[in-house]
Amino acid sequence: MEGKFTTEATPAEVHEDTENQTPAERRQTDRRHRPTPMFSRYVLFGGRRRHIRRDDEREGAFVDVHGPFVLFVVLAIVALNLMDAFFTLLFLSHGGQELNPVVQWVLDSTWHPWPFILLKTVGIGMACAFLTMAKFFRPARIGLAFVLVGYGVLLGWHLFLLQYLPT
Fold first, then answer.
1. Which residues contact 132 (CB under 8 A, 6 or more apart)?
2. What angle do CA 97, 150, 86 make, to 5 degrees?
3. Mean pLDDT by 10 residues, the chain (167 residues)
4. Where are the domains of the chain?
5. How far apart are CA 73 and CA 132, in angstroms?
């Protein structure tokens, strides 16, 4: 047998094969060589993939555009985080004590309160970004819900303590 043997079809051959197929037949083969990665150029510079097309692919998939509900959850977490920082600084200015030794070390810095606010904002921002990108993984969805509920409870605690501040 002479000549070159290949199993790959040329683009013209692929076009001829798919030209006579119905859309359902064309969808049976996955055209992607690899799944959408967690980090791609589309994450920062305009996403393309908004939804998971097949329900059986939903768990563990990544998309580039995340939608208004996830945006609302992340913005709520960031707002609650900033309120937590405000109330923490307020209570500390009235004689309160920080129980977290790492945060206390940051609060003791000479640039107080900016390193504290920066640490809280960047930390929760990075966590929210990671959980948002992994939103189709069950632990990430649980993580976002846990952080949102946790900050909501913490805000309730701050509001409770607010009544005991001297006026």
1. 66, 70, 74, 140, 144
2. 45
3. 51 57 61 57 55 56 68 93 94 90 87 87 91 81 94 96 89
4. 30-65, 68-162
5. 10
